[in-house]
Amino acid sequence: MERTYLMVKPDGVQRGLVGQIISRFEQRGYKIVGLKMMQITRELAEKHYGEHAGKPFFQGLVDFITSGPVVAMAVEGKDVVATAREMMGATNPLKAAPGTIRATYGVDVGRNVIHGSDSPASAEREIALFFRPEELVDYGRAIDAWIYE
Ligand code: GTP
Ligand code: MG
User: Fold this and answer.
1) What CATH number corresponds to the domain at position 22?
2) Where is the Nucleoside diphosphate kinase-like domain (predicted)?
3) CA 52 – ligand 2 centroid, Å
4) Residue 147, in any domain of the structure
5) Which of 41, 82, 117, 147 is the most buried (most CB within 10 A)?
6) Domain range spanning residue 30?
């Protein structure tokens, strides 16, 4: 089953939104297979956001994502990479569709509360960047038969 990397950013942690954000994915039927709070180093931040190196907002982005703890998650389920991005909403919260996480909780592109992998390849790369293999848990859920036909 497909996996994605999701991360409550430092603004989401500081604002006490961790539980509500995780709940949205649990309630959708997705399964958490990795979960931890951590402080990102600059080195890890620069790797994670490597595609944006050299862009005008890059330093600010690295400063922000290392400014406080984050909650890192590996989440599994049907089409989870694309669906999680839909649930998050557009990068700029002011452009995000009503009801999405970013529209519900944010107003500024540099304080958009959550990260989600943008493709299955990114998801694989990011999960490997943030989790050691033994931190990812394989388990079944009795409820899966009520989520998947
Ligand atoms: P992530 O899930 O965090 O990767 O966001 P995204 O995939 O929706 O957007 P993208 O990867 O293009 O950008 C990464 C992060 O950089 C965004 O979440 C924003 O916080 C920030 N960012 C992107 N574009 C801009 C910009 O034009 N200005 C500023 N200030 N920040 C930006
Ligand atoms: Mg991105």
Assistant:
1) 3.30.70.141
2) 1-138
3) 9
4) no
5) 117
6) 2-137
> For 83-116, how does the pLDDT look when each residue is reduced to its tens digit (9 = 90+)?
999 999 999 999 999 999 999 999 999 999 999 9
Whether 55 has a binding-site annotation, put simply, is: no
Q: For the chain, how many residues are written?
A: 149
Whether 48 sits among the annotated catalytic residues: the reply is: no
Contact between 2 and 101 under an 8 Å Cβ cutoff? The reply is no
User: Distance (Å, rounded) from C-alpha 21 to C-alpha 7?
Assistant: 10
135-149 confidence digits (pLDDT tens): 999 999 999 999 999
How many folded domains does the chain comprise? 1
Q: Tell me if 76 is assigned to some domain.
A: yes
Determine the distance separating the centroid of ligand 1 and the alpha carbon of 147, expressed in angstroms. 32
Residue 143 lies in a domain: no
Region 119-134: what's the mean pLDDT?
98
Q: Which residues contact 31 (CB under 8 A, 6 or more apart)?
A: 75, 76, 77, 141, 144
